[in-house]
Give the backbone structure.
Amino acid sequence: MLFPSPPFLSLGTVASFRGYDDPVETEVVEERIPYLHGGYAAPLAQPERGSMASIDRLGKRSPSIDSIRKDPRWRDPDLPEVIAMLSHPIDPVKSNAAAYLQHLCYENDKIKKDVRHLKGIPILVGLLDHPKPEVHRKACGALRNISYGKDNENKVAIKNCDGIPALIRLLRKTNDMEVRELITGQCL
């Protein structure tokens, strides 16, 4: 059985399909990739690079400008967008936003401070009481990375928005060892 293949397969990939003895499969592949009949692949479209100069001039970069340079159609969300996604009505969006914050805050004191100033800590603390384990696990991981480090202001911010009682409630109700380790690592 052939699985759908993207239209940008190389000639070598099609040749490997032709190793099958089934002529119908070969025909299907050739119909899906018509520009390979002549033995050459059509050149891939090249993204327009002219807009990068305007992005660089603005000085406003999302957390990873590398994603824009790799594929200009996609960009990483900026920090206010990620924090807004923590309040999204769809739970996977919340958990993905919290996981992304955890990633961004890893060993980055500026991002940690920015999350605090953008009022992301109270939202994350609120997610600790979320009924879905994936959401409170990711929020707990983000809070752990935000609180880790020499700067005590984030720890105070977590305490000031009732983060300690929320962490204790979560610790009491969960059997998930990962969550328990995240909580105990955060409180030290």
Observations:
- The chain has two domains: 8-42, 79-187.
- The two ends are 55 Å apart (CA to CA).
- The chain has twelve helices and no strands.
- Residues 1-22, 24-59 have pLDDT under 50 and may be disordered.
